[in-house]
Amino acid sequence: MNTAARTAALLERSPLSPAAPDALEILPARSEHRWLRIALVTETYPPEVNGVAGTVARIVEGLREFGHELQLVRPRQHKAEQAQSEAGFAELLMRGLPIPRYPQLRMGLPAKRALLRRWSFERPDVVHIATEGPLGWSALQAARQLRLPVLSEFRTNFHAYSQHYGVGWLRHPIHAYLRKFHNQCQRTLVPSEDLRATLAGQRFERLAVVARGVDTERFHPGRRDPALRAQWGAGPDSPVLLCVGRLAAEKNLELLLDAYATLRQRAPQARLVLVGDGPERERLRQRCPDAVFCGLQIGTALAAHYASADLFAFPSLTETFGNVVPEALASGLPVVAFDYAAAAKLLREGPAGRLVPQGQPTAFCTAVAELGSQPPELQRMAQAARAVALQQGWPAIVAGIEAHYRELLSGPEA
Question: Which GO terms of the molecular function aspect are on file (predicted)?
Fold first, then answer.
């Protein structure tokens, strides 16, 4: 199987996979510049299921479509896995270990020596580091020793997660590590202006904003499924409140249950559907036995779950972006979320949902109850939600990343 076919197969099993071409998207012109040799380093990749894996796969696919030569450096996901290699693409599989509490995911182990050896003989034009784990740190040190331009991405608030796992005392050391990591790179991409401003205030340097894309063909209102709604116990007039993501402490899901209880006071027939899995699943089920727990959903099944709901509630306060927000909008779902990250960027300019000021949980519950109990308002907002998502296609995002590569190679950093 060639790389393009393999990538398509992986994305079919990922939450960010393509479907029938039912949305028109204007593609940027193919780059007229010389192709680049890019080493892209990531701790996670499909078929692992998470937002980082899905978006990195989209970037790899887009860069290859632009004609660049890619070396993908990532942990080996199982012992028998073989690295893929063909013209213009090669994988370099490294050692990895399961991540605590998420054994289905792996983190890379230090590999500076191996990267030095490989990049000395096959020197990339630029090193793109997508994750800040041990493998990412090794790649950063190897690239600096070889004087290669390095671009990184700030993707996950690991320092914010620490307080939810009984290691709050690690918050400041983790934050210091992340700052040291990214400040050794020539450029760090962040997905939103508010995150750029926050990190700049914390002495992060050389930041640039590149948003995240969404597959508007995969996530589409046309995937609404009455049979799926019937499985949830929802009738035609039952408002379905949806949340998609890890069932984990850092996602603030206690507030989601509070919002659902407030909605039920106005619309007793309302249903709550949670898509995803994680360490909090049983505790959440015990607190809210009426909720529907659908477990992990991927590909077209995930898209159908989005489109079959009526309102998306996103109570998290620990995201760097929140890929689920544009996925919900693309599926025609109005969104209630706090005013930051993806929601702040995508909901502020149109009637596609409600933004709630951070630190106001009561206002979040009220917004969910008000919208969820007004089906005509939800239907009106659904069209606006879809229109917002159509502006977030992946080809333009990849073109923006490519432009940063070329600036690094032509600027004083080179």
Answer: glycosyltransferase activity
Cβ contacts of residue 33 below 8 Å, gap of 6+?
Answer: 406
pTM of the model: 0.75
Average pLDDT over residues 42-70: 92
Cα–Cα distance, 266 to 263 (Å, whole number) = 5
Q: Is the peptide bond before 376 cis (omega within 30 degrees of 0)?
A: no
Q: Is the pLDDT of residue 131 over 80?
A: yes
The CATH superfamily of 3-213+393-410 is Glycogen Phosphorylase B; (3.40.50.2000)
Query: In angstroms, how far is the first alpha carbon of the chain from the final one?
Result: 37
Q: How many other C-beta atoms are found inside a 10 Å radius of the C-beta of residue 85?
A: 11
Per domain, the residue ranges of the chain are 3-213+393-410, 221-389
The domains spanning 3-213+393-410 and 221-389 adopt the same CATH topology = yes
> Which pLDDT belongs to residue 5?
52
CB-based contact 270:262 (threshold 8 Å):
no
Cα 92 to Cα 34: distance, rounded to the nearest angstrom: 24
CATH topology of domain 221-389: Rossmann fold (3.40.50)
Q: Are 310 and 241 in contact (CB under 8 A)?
A: yes
How many angstroms from the chain centroid is the CA of residue 265? 33
- Distance between CA atoms of residues 60 and 128, nearest Å: 11
Compute the residue count for the chain.
414
Distance (Å) of CA 68 to CA 33, 34, 108, 408: 10, 9, 25, 16
The rounded radius of gyration (Å) of the Cα atoms in the chain is 21
- Cβ of 151: how many Cβ atoms within 10 Å? 25
**Phi and psi angles of residue 235, each rounded to the nearest 5 degrees, phi first:** -85, 180
**DSSP structural state of residue 249:** G
The position carrying tokens 């060639």 is 2
d(C-alpha 52, C-alpha 171), whole Å:
21
pLDDT band at residue 170, thresholds of 50, 70 and 90?
low
Query: Is pLDDT at 165 greater than 60 in this prediction?
Result: no
Report the candidate in 287, 269, 261 with the shortest Cα–Cα distance to residue 364.
261
Q: Which residues pair with 91 in a beta bridge?
A: 72
Residue bearing tokens 């949670």: 274
Condensed to tens digits (0 to 9), the pLDDT of residues 227-282 reads 999 999 999 889 999 999 989 888 999 999 999 999 999 999 999 999 999 999 99
**Dihedral angle, C-alpha 43, 45, 47, 48, nearest 10 °:** 40
